[in-house]
Amino acid sequence: MNSTDKKFRRRAEARPDEMLDAALAVFAEKGFAATKVDEVARRAGVSKGTVYLYFPSKEALMEGIVRRAVAPIAERALPDMAQFEGDPRLPIAMLVHTLQNLLSDPNNLAVPRLILREIMNFPAIAELYRREVLGKVIPALTALVARGVASGQLRKVDPEMTVRSIVGPIVAHVALSEVFGVRPEEGLALDRLVENHLDILFHGISPAGGEETP
Amino acid sequence: MNSTDKKFRRRAEARPDEMLDAALAVFAEKGFAATKVDEVARRAGVSKGTVYLYFPSKEALMEGIVRRAVAPIAERALPDMAQFEGDPRLPIAMLVHTLQNLLSDPNNLAVPRLILREIMNFPAIAELYRREVLGKVIPALTALVARGVASGQLRKVDPEMTVRSIVGPIVAHVALSEVFGVRPEEGLALDRLVENHLDILFHGISPAGGEETP
Amino acid sequence: MNSTDKKFRRRAEARPDEMLDAALAVFAEKGFAATKVDEVARRAGVSKGTVYLYFPSKEALMEGIVRRAVAPIAERALPDMAQFEGDPRLPIAMLVHTLQNLLSDPNNLAVPRLILREIMNFPAIAELYRREVLGKVIPALTALVARGVASGQLRKVDPEMTVRSIVGPIVAHVALSEVFGVRPEEGLALDRLVENHLDILFHGISPAGGEETP
Amino acid sequence: MNSTDKKFRRRAEARPDEMLDAALAVFAEKGFAATKVDEVARRAGVSKGTVYLYFPSKEALMEGIVRRAVAPIAERALPDMAQFEGDPRLPIAMLVHTLQNLLSDPNNLAVPRLILREIMNFPAIAELYRREVLGKVIPALTALVARGVASGQLRKVDPEMTVRSIVGPIVAHVALSEVFGVRPEEGLALDRLVENHLDILFHGISPAGGEETP
DNA sequence: CATGAATGAGAGTTCATTCAT
DNA sequence: CATGAATGAACTCTCATTCAT
Q: What pLDDT shows up at residue C79?
């Protein structure tokens, strides 16, 4: 009860996570290059040396942040989509709404923002993201669209390219807002964007006289 | 005796431009932070001091690159679009094809790539881009869509959000390719993307039984 | 095992002082501008970075030197003088002799020499010196002379200007020697200067038939 | 009358002097180290290269300034003093008043100020000054005092040290004012200083019951 | 485990000086 | 004579990383 009391144990085990939290906060605020390890340590309530006890380098902090954020994505909603058999517009709408929910919470936005900001300086992160997220989401979506086209539930569109039409408007909307500060008066208004986007998308990919948006 | 001998190059008025070319090349290759002014100078065939003769700082090189690239954009195709009276799908298709042409040339791609890579560390550049490019293109496009909706040539879509549906797929396509290396086997295949995109888009925004893609 | 082995010196609280010593030595030798921080570090037995661990800039070293040297001056002999009630020539002689002692030791001379050399490039130091040293010594001396005049122990001299007559000859003597290398054959011969100076001064400010030099 | 008209000739011949004027102005304002040759050139209305046409280095400008200012001093009032036969207090008073006049004009103050500021970084200048000015003034003054002592017109003072008592108060007064900004409310008030100084000095060096200040 | 003092390679920037025109 | 574009050595300061305690 002395050296193993709550405080001590929690600290010992949660340390790496606390450091990633601190690093994310500072990276998000100042960018990777402008962030000093000293400040990450301070924000995490430890000394600079301790950071290096858990992470071999400043870059490793960056990778740790991304790895932690990316991990749950792959396991989550993907399997469902891949095996879905019915109207492909349903999982497409689900995916879009999942994205919407994800992006609505500023907390969730911090990591993508950071990735967007730094990715071109971190080939390893780009590769990780490509492999763990895009490499799973894109093929699943492509297959979904392809099945829809094959079954006649969708018009004869190019499945691979259509994936860009599904996520593109959302990406563009968030990028405009986050990078350039171009946003509607209401704020992000993601719901408005999603509604209009799905409306156009489904009109665009459904056969003439096709069903309405699910 | 040719135009590149030493004597001619001295005092050449093209000096600043040559430096921006060199800077663009190195920034594109290594990123802003990892680029040494020394290397920009070497690549431009001058000494480090000479760079500072024309640009007060390394950052000024970055700004110079963007400013030079952004300048012609605003003056170019915008006015036409704003005053166009007929089928709004025509100028939309034109804009998309203009983008396609622009992005097809790897030379033209270098600046947007660089901007994408560094913009979050250069608020001034983001602001410049927002003001000079987005601040002109987006309102023009929005008005165009709004007119189309008003005239009944387009379905009742949200003009402001629809702009994201027009450029989003292209942005996503280029970003996937340039940032993550996710691209079709043929390479960028921008034509395939554009064809599919316009197909879906126009089906998505045209009234039921509307005209075909222009 | 002695007090200068590596382990003991690490974290020593004397670090800043050691650096000031080193800086003073190099500044005195080469002047501020011609001194490289690297050399200060080497002379202090540390690395360049360590200097910046304790002092934020090269200028801060300069200020540190002066501040450290100036600190004890104000607290020392001033209070006595201010409250002295008897013959004002006594504390004047004491002050002059204190100066004489101070300036006799080449070690003590280093700081004034450095100040003299660099002061015009360091307004902050001039201000510090003015406030902490001159701002206390001069008014005290002035008051002393004024009291002497009022009590009739001194002739009717201008107290404020007489202060210049008290310290001027010493300043001139040291400046001639230190700056221009003009000095008697014996060396500085401060005692000779002081004796002659006080002889003239006291004859100059005492009433006709006044007392002898104390 | 074409290529030798006033403008051209004056420029050609007065160039070096104009450059020294410009250099003095900038050195006085910013100090030697902080002055850029570029600015001296600009202030002189010529190009940087032209400065190097007349002066081999930045330091040479400094030396030129001092040499030009020092030249007339030696030839001027010195001979008179050396051969003066009457009351030595007369030439002493004259010297002090000459100094007073010299220092009263801010224009004349610029060079001494600059010398004071930079001399310790320019051994050559110190040496020049020592040789050309001090080496002549001090022996002359010393001899004068010695003669006064020998003739009984002055008390038995140490001639060499007494020189410090003659110029010291003035030096101290100017240094206090120029270096530390310590000055009477009226401004420099050199006349007040000189009057009090000579009063004390002559009372100090004259035999008891000696004559009044000339 | 944790600390934080110490390191030192490295980069941006300045500016006296040169020299082709 | 005059120019001013070009040079490049030199310097200050930063900060990721190490390691003795």
A: 62
Asked whether B77 and B99 are in contact (CB, 8 A), the reply is no
Contact between C201 and D165 using a beta-carbon 8 Å cutoff: yes
Domains, chain D, ranges and CATH?
1-56 (1.10.10.60), 66-205 (1.10.357.10)
State pLDDT tens for residues D28-39.
Answer: 988 898 899 999
Which residue has the least CA–C1' distance to nucleotide E2? Answer: A50
C106 CB-near residues (< 8 Å, 6+ apart):
none
Q: What was the pLDDT predicted at B10?
A: 52
Residues 6+ apart with CB under 8 A from A79: none
- Per-residue pLDDT tens for D132-172? 888 988 999 999 999 999 999 999 999 999 999 999 999 99
DSSP state letter for B125: H
- Cβ neighbours of A205 in B, within 8 Å: 200, 203-204
Confidence of residue B214 (pLDDT cuts 50, 70, 90): very low
Percentage of residues of chain B with pLDDT beyond 70 = 87
Phi and psi at residue A156, in whole multiples of 5°?
-80, 80
Residue D118 has a CB neighbour count (10 Å cut-off) of: 22
CA A66-A71-A76 angle, to 5 degrees, is 135
The C-alpha atoms of residue C196 and residue C193 are separated, in whole angstroms, by: 5
Q: Which amino acid is at D7?
A: K
CA distance A29 to D40: 45
Mean pLDDT score of chain A, rounded to an integer? 86
Tens-place pLDDT, residues C16-58: 899 999 999 999 988 898 899 999 999 999 999 999 999 999 9
CB-defined contacts A:B, below 8 A = 147
Question: Which residues from chain C sit within 8 angstroms of residue D203, using beta carbons?
Answer: 155, 203-205
Contact yes or no for B157 and A196 at CB 8 A:
yes
Scanning the structure block, which residue is given the tokens 């340039």? B178
In this structure, which amino acid lies at residue C68? R
Residue B117's identity, in one-letter code, is R
For residue B158, give every residue at least 6 positions away whose Cβ sits within 8 Å of its Cβ, in sequence order, or none.
A192, A195, A196
Exposure b/e, C74-84, CB count within 10 A at least 16 = b: eeeebeebeeb
* pLDDT, tens digit (0-9, with 9 covering 90-100), for A178-207: 888 899 999 889 999 999 999 999 999 999
Please state the pTM of the whole predicted model.
Answer: 0.82
By the 10 Å C-beta count (0-12 exposed, 13-18 middle, 19+ buried), C55 is classed as buried
Q: Which nucleotides of F are covered by protein (CB under 7 A)?
A: 1-21
CB B19, CB B55: distance < 8 Å: yes
